[in-house]
Amino acid sequence: MRLDKKKILFIAGILISIICSWLFARKIEWSQLSVALKDAKYIYIIPTLILIFVSHYLRAVRWSALIAPIKKVSVLNLFSATMIGFMANSVLPARIGEIIRPVMVAKKEKVKVTASFATAVMERSFDMLSIIIFASLLFFFLPTDTLQDKSVSMINHTEASAEVVKVEYVTEESKAEAPNTIKQLKKWSIVMAFFGVLAITSLFLLSLYPKKAGAVFEKLLFLFPHHLKDKLVNLLHSFISGLQVFDHKTKLLWIGVLSLVIWFFNATPIYVLCYAFDIKLSFAGACFVMVCLCLAIALPQAPGFIGVFHIAVQKTLIIFGVGLSSAQSFAIILWALSVIPITAVGLLFLWREGMSFGEISHYDEEVPEQL
């Protein structure tokens, strides 16, 4: 059954990536795209890459705080597992990197897989809360007059004494549609804020009264099929075991702040890279792109986020009045910087750990079936 589910998700992911890749590629004007890529200021790649790696290192720092109640683990070892996990997400199917990370740490540090997995669940829970907070605040305060007044941007270039003109259109349809999109997002921000408050409240209740809150949660699952209920209950127990960190309230505050800082550093590379393409985008706009991108890559898709990543960035930038060619070239470069260097460093750490793809590709078998 588990194998069948993996196959279904893999096929669905491939289909979604193919569709998104087609949607992205079908509107490419190759001459305009080549000019946009050629004229980009690639000096901004350096700070963009630095910021991307800083965000990944901060993830390792946060993980060290989460796993500390179980065992003190060096940040370097956790950074190694983090990079290998992200590399695996880029080259292996089914987002297996999310399982590889905690299993690798469990094996190396001689701790229980369930305990290590619980810290990974907590890590993703903080990520979800951070995204909800970012999105609800951002969508609520984002102005509806997002698009600039300019519907056409024209830049003249001279090449071999011939004038090459790049014309990027922001259609009237797009300009009319964008405010409606923002208004809808503002409505959703209220719903997201509600669930964010509900999630934070649930965290505190589970940390203060784990047995009582767990029992209430189990009763709320009476409508679910028996096999799904058992799986959710076991996941809850794994989650509660990761809540040991809540015994130290100052550490909880530190992890919460660090999670917000991590997402700040996830948005900053987008903001900095905009300068490479002369894209006028506010930091709030960069956060908006980040949130939409995170929602998109949460879908099943091919390894490396091919297609889904590109179309999400392109569509979001167009809302801000960015021309199609600039949006597409930006999406291509941002994807390359987010995937290729991370994959390369992950491979280096895999070699450093003396491990192989064949070994880590079976790490999902190390996690109990109910998880």
UniProtKB/TrEMBL annotation:
It is found in: Cell membrane. Its main location: membrane. Keywords: Cell membrane, Membrane, Transmembrane, Transmembrane helix. The chain crosses the membrane at residues 41-61, 73-92, 126-144, 190-209, 252-274, 281-299, 331-351. It is a multi-pass membrane protein. GO terms for cellular component: plasma membrane. NCBIfam families: flippase-like domain. This is Uncharacterized protein. It comes from Candidatus Scalindua arabica.
